[in-house]
Amino acid sequence: MRKHFPAAAVYLFTSLGFLSIAALFAVIISGFFYSISKIGLGAAISSFTFEWIPEGGKYGILPMIAGTSLIALIAVLFAVPLSFGIVTSVWIYNNAFSAFLRGLLRFMSGIPTVVYAFCGIIVIIPIFRSVSGGSGYNIITVSAALCFLILPTMTLTADSALHSFINSPENPVLTADSLGIKREKSFIYMVMYAQKKLLFTGALLAFGRAAGDTLIVLMLSGNAPVMPGGLFSSVRTLSGHISLLTAAEITPQAEFTLFLSGFLLFILALFLNFIVRTLRGR
Amino acid sequence: MKKGLFIFIFLLFASFIFAADNSEFTGSSLSDFNSLSGVIDIAGGTAHIPVMNAAAQKIMRHNGRIKITVAGGGSGAGVKQVGEGLVNIGNTGRALKESEIAQYGLKTYPFAIDGVAVVVHPANSVSSLTSTQVQNIFAGKTVNWKELGGKDAAINLYTREEGSGTREVFADILLKEVVISQKAVIINSNGAMKTAVAGDLNGIGYVGIGFTDKSVKGVVLDGIPPTQKNASTGVYKVTRLLYMNTRGEPDKLTGTFIRYITGSADGRKFIEDAGYIPIK
Asked: What is the pTM of this model?
């Protein structure tokens, strides 16, 4: 009995884990279709319009889709140079400070998002308010805060990608060193070039994390349900939309948009995962 | 190391027990909790939180076997969660709708009066507005402080989310038919609203009067300053009652809690400390 316990436990917890994922999937899908059956297909399709004015019977969520894509994309654009810069310097100098940086990033990945959001309100919003005018609750502010959130994801993925390459039997960096190539050059043109696919998967994972985050966007984006009119305009994201409306008493058609938002985020996550797995060749 | 941690945790728990033992006997109603134990979960309107927290702390310190959790979420969440049995008390900053009472069989207990104040940054030179001006501002028709006698700067609008009791009172009583501009920044609690306006020289928003302090300036509306005194006498019109709601009859512990808030000297004090006016 005791001998078989670990294997049994593994099966048990694996199947429980699988079940909970299946249940989540079932809830979103069934809610989605039940909601369509309640309001009709026409009303459901009308959710793909540009105006969200519940008082006026307009339930378009295209602004939220645009908002989510835009903030996640800009956050990744912010984070890519930072992350690649960090990872390159970590490997080039490979000293005590590198170890410290890695530890710091691991620590950062465990910080609750509300902390980033709070710092965003205290620090980032006043900065962008003074730069751009307006309220400061806008796309750039959110993306800047999200950048800190996704930086560890992206950097640690890149770090492990470089790790597996540099520690391979050929040890290309030593070869490059012996040829008198500067470390900076051998890293940028050789190591990072060779691992570009894996670096890209890091960016994709980071994009997924940024698109799915709720609290930071809820607290910093301004949540205005309008098409983004520039980098300093306030936006609402799909996740923020779900969070804002769950607390309210709402019409069936507004409720449908919640399931639709959840469904879209779900599809996005699946899609990103699929690409990441393909790129990693698994 | 582990041993140290263990001792630390032990001391922590021990200190809780001592704290409970040392609690003084204060207020006539607090003793009603003596023989009770259990959990009260509270959620809903964010304006209620200071009152609920103060009461919860006092009760839990008095009787360690009672656990009270207080969460926000807004009035809409309050109705939903208490209706579905997720919490014992669902707070709302507005009267329940007929449909809500019918759907969930809710019982409602008003306990305080709160006004909703239009607030701006303390350094804003505009300090009084008419209802019509406020309507135009929130509709997005008036877009510059210059038009209101202030400096030449764009107005930054802040509003609360749908489902907020504060928003509902503000919209129903002050804005009436006016629809709030789509471009307004949506903030999802009274506290966050205060932080937002306190940090924005050109901002305008609205909070429960209980939340106003030196960090924001309450705008004089149609010549009447938004104070709790004016709200309680009815001179200031943008007011609301704060309610606790239960599904059906409350259980013994929850009922005692509600009576403690509505009918004890402590309850009155918590309500006044939070900046509201007790009913009766």
From this structure: 0.78
